[in-house]
Amino acid sequence: MSSLRYSLLACAAMFFADTTSAADIASIQPIGFSADGHTFAYEEYGIHDGSGFPYANIYVLDLTNDTFLPGTPFRVRLEQDDATIAKARWRVRNDAGAVIESHELANHPAEFVAFNPATEVDADPHRLRYLSVAALPAIGKPNTLVLEELPQPLDPRCEGLISRTVAFRLRFTERDGMPTDEIVHEDRHIPLSRNCVSGYRLGGIVNGSSGGSTPVEVALVMVLSAGFEGQDGRWIAIPLNTPR
Fold first, then answer.
1. Sequence-ordered list of residues with C-beta below 8 angstroms from that of 220, at least 6 positions apart, any chain
2. Entry pTM
3. What ranges do the domains of the chain cover?
4. In degrees rounded to 5, what are phi and psi of residue 57?
5. pLDDT tens, 73-111?
6. What is the arithmetic mean of pLDDT over 35-40?
7. Coil, strand, or helix at residue 157?
8. Residues pairing with 144 in the sheet
9. What does the alpha-carbon distance between residue 78 and residue 41 come to, in Å, rounded to a whole number?
């Protein structure tokens, strides 16, 4: 009986080890904003599901123009036998250090005001209702942001990998407790960097102080694309409120 129990436990351990190693949902760490609120940086990192190599990327955005700063993003993938996520993260932080320091991004940290990870079972992956200020008792009234997936023609490169491809739109249906219909982002095309994208998750909202009276806010969207086994998850940032 004990040998049977051991065999079952061993099989279960092998199953969960395989499913864990197959997943490639990147973790995310916001870094911060510039003092004027026009620049934002975040880091994503994980283990590549196909190669098993650790990677880390740092993205630095010009929120006013919704573009990357020149010379960015910074990307590291370590292919040595002794490579670790910690080493990849140290390397990419070292590469991005001058940009982070010159814009004083670490002096103005980004704060999560809403977060919906891929492991959340009951939450709507396309909707976040949140307050912009982290305080108790609550300050202000809620905002509701929704992500709408927009079907697109399937890229021939992705045939056999995914059954559909989608762009997305971000829309506020509530601002400061009042109904609204405000589109803050809509894809004009699907960038090649998203690979064979099959879906999205509205993963979080971060904000920070700026020179203006309104906090600067950024939506964090997870891009789901065809991976080695299952779906890969990578992060993009969409500006919501930016200082004038």
1. 28, 30, 42, 203, 204, 205, 206, 235, 236, 237
2. 0.88
3. 24-241
4. -130, 140
5. 999 999 988 899 999 999 999 999 999 999 999 999 999
6. 94
7. helix
8. 129, 174
9. 22
